[in-house]
Write a structure and sequence with these properties.
Three copies of one chain form a homotrimer. Chain A is of the alpha/beta class. Helices cover 37% and strands 15% of the residues of chain A. Chain A has 14 helices and twelve strands. In chain A, 56% of the residues are buried. Chains in contact: A-B, A-C, B-C. Chains A, B, C: It catalyses: N(2)-succinyl-L-ornithine + carbamoyl phosphate = N(2)-succinyl-L-citrulline + phosphate + H(+). Chains A, B, C: InterPro entries: ArgF'-like (IPR043696), Asp/Orn_carbamoyltranf_P-bd (IPR006132), Asp/Orn_carbamoylTrfase (IPR006130), Asp/Orn_carbamoylTrfase_sf (IPR036901), Asp_carbamoyltransf_Asp/Orn-bd (IPR006131). Chains A, B, C: Catalyzes the transfer of the carbamoyl group from carbamoyl phosphate to the delta-amino group of N(2)-succinyl-L-ornithine to produce N(2)-succinyl-L-citrulline. Is essential for arginine biosynthesis.
Chain lengths: 315, 315, 315
């Protein structure tokens, strides 16, 4: 396994979830794989869950871990060719990335959408330069368009908590004060399309996700109809794709409260975290017994560990 | 041992000091305890000694260590319920803390007094939420009202350097340009009250520490009288408790210089560090052979290691 | 080996390079040396290569590593005696350094030239206080006047890529938008003078390096003449030594492009990185097969590992 950027990279989802749950039972059983192997985690953006859970996953496998905050510990990086570098960027990504590749066996990279230019974000310029130039397996720790470690952990969590073979899973938009990337919902759509679930996406008009993700996915603009019969409610805010990076609504009638949850089939509540309480979801819902956000976060270790283990096996 | 916040948590002080000195002799003898165990150190405030010494203690015990600077590496955290989170805090402590608890076996937390509100600080809101919500043993790396790893290291240092069974220990206020929390003096008082020492506190009027710490403790407002016969001088600045967080005096006649030390019984000089030279203590005193501030800092490893070892044993 | 600050500290260069290349073949063969040993890496200035490569080297040897960013994770440090510390520096280096020494077995320090005062920089005040006060072996991770781990890696790289017994090595100044320290060129001069190479330095008038480094070294002000017959071109910018810290020229006729490289004996191109493209060197040259900057960066692990190994052997 040479890269983990999207759902296709993990292969059969049932096998992947099974492997993750097996690692959850025996997290320290594969430490021979990581001996004298090093993972470098590069953060262009800040992180709590991803930083700690990926570090933990790598340590569970016996690896050494180095964390680097680019733009803070290190340098700002130029990524264009032909630039006379007389400004604030002292290093080119075409040197920085292969150098980092010399110091490790696996690289994890977090680089969010910048919302300056849709084409730049959706072409995954930063991530692709790591793949092209590092010479090492690359794990996305959330890129401009996807957050696959999160979606994999979401799927593991659904598998653990489902009470029927084919549960109904609803991704619902919810309001937020800031413009947030589409990485988490894009990725969740991608994974749910490939999972054995009934999947519905609901959001106000104008919040349609990118067509390349949504092909064949059911969209229900009426949030109540979407919630009916749901076994899992997955809430998330995102900014508009069509009016790229814009906030079109802060309509708090979309906030997931007890009344919304009453429309469902006693659904579990999920969110990738961090979550803005009383914007995305009320205190009451997120603290209810049906909220599984902490279990979901806990599974971030095992989605990461499955991916890293497969990479170690292929080195 | 499920928490280490105050002197009561360590139990018998003689036994604790003995165990620490034994670990100092054989720091690597208990690495089986920490194998595949992880400690997360959370810093809401910056740190040099605590960060390095606690990390070292955990590594001596064979643990994995992850360090997280909240407000910098991570996010600002909301701690109130019922808040519509549409401001600058993207995450609630009621999610962040249980999530961190999923990624480790022991949590260390540093969270200083904010000096905005005495009741908030003295109720230890942040630390108590870690205890309530993390599901894991919690070590204070200095809280709003106490710094128990420091006081434990101080006690070890006194035990190593005392030349009589029951030495006289004096805690003296000294001037400082900034308003400093009462955590170190509160904690030192709490530990000395429980130790086999003659204990006196001296400070200008208006600098009385919180009554719940000072019950039964001798206060001598005349610094010279307090110093007479002292075997250990423990200097520290703190801001006023009664006029909460205020600087009432920068009187440099309280600075510990050679003349002050001449009043004592050839006392050792102690300070938790960092120390403002020529405000708290003169260059001459802190560089004298009677200064044991470096030995005191070195013992931070073994106070931390004793606490972490006991927690590992109880997991 | 108690310190590594300059070329004299490593002893015989041929033996050192041979040891480094042997470690490159078997990086994990000496992990018994580092067991239960800790290195602390202190950065007063930011770092990518040095941080990651030194950490990797220490982990290859089985050590524990702690990284501390002073001025950021920790505190600003006072370094003068007699100062009444009532300003923005809460700690004196005469406490901080011996305390850090208590928590580790080896210390690495990065502290750049400040360009405020030539005498201060060239007296290596910060580094020398670590040597004087820490009580532990000290490795320069780039000081005000030298970058010996870089120069050692450069020498290893030349040894690997040379095609004749005594290659011609040219250090050339090149333009840059900011005032850069002389540490890398000083150090490179120092190592090349002691290596079995024909060595020439070329730069515009006014960019003469400090006399104590340049004694006996050939300077050729005509860049073309210097490049003729060169087997290795080592490009680097530096600010003026005589007009200390000033930028006297940004003359891009000194930028190393294909035409410059055509003057050489099919020379390899070297640079310590980070490099400003199209200021120091063109995209074309740095991406050409003759560019060995990535291999050079990779050797940073093995220069560091050789030094740390020798220090561990002498503890």
């Amino acid at each position: 396994m040479k890269r983990f950027l999207k759902v296709e990279d993990i292969g059969d989802l049932n096998a992947a979830v099974k492997e993750a749950l097996s690692l959850k039972q025996n997290p320290y059983a594969h430490q021979h794989l990581g001996k004298n192997k090093t993972i470098v985690l590069i953060f262009f953006n800040s992180s709590l869950r991803t930083r700690l859970s990926t570090q933990k996953a790598a340590m569970n496998l016996g690896m050494n871990v180095m964390v680097l905050d680019i733009n803070k510990d290190g340098w700002k990086l130029e990524s264009e060719l032909g630039v006379v570098m007389d400004g604030d960027k002292p290093e080119h990504i075409r040197e920085a990335v292969p150098v980092i590749g010399q110091y490790c066996d696996i690289i994890g990279v977090r680089s969010f959408a910048q919302f300056e230019n849709k084409e730049d974000d959706y072409s995954e310029k930063i991530l692709n330069q790591f793949i092209e130039l590092s010479g090492k397996p690359v794990i996305s720790l959330e890129s401009a368009t996807r957050h696959p470690l999160q979606s994999f952990a979401d799927l593991i969590t659904i598998e653990e908590h489902k009470t029927k073979a084919r549960p109904k899973v609803v991704l619902t938009w919810a309001p937020h004060p800031r413009a947030l990337p589409q990485a988490v919902p894009n990725s969740f759509v991608e994974w749910m399309k490939n999972a054995d679930v009934e999947f519905v996406v609901t959001h106000p008009k104008g919040y349609e996700l990118a067509p390349e993700f949504m092909e064949g996915v059911t969209v229900e603009y009426d949030q109540k109809k979407a919630f009916e019969g749901a076994d899992f409610i997955y809430a998330k805010n995102w900014a508009s794709y069509t009016e790229y990076g814009q906030i079109l609504s802060k309509d708090t009638s979309w906030t997931v409260d007890e009344a919304h949850m009453a429309w469902t089939n006693n659904a579990k509540f999920m969110h990738c975290l961090p979550v803005r309480r009383n914007m995305i979801v009320t205190d009451g819902v997120i603290e209810s017994p049906n909220s599984i956000v902490i279990q979901e976060a806990a599974n971030r270790v095992f989605s990461a560990q499955t991916v890293i283990k497969r990479m170690l096996e292929s080195i």
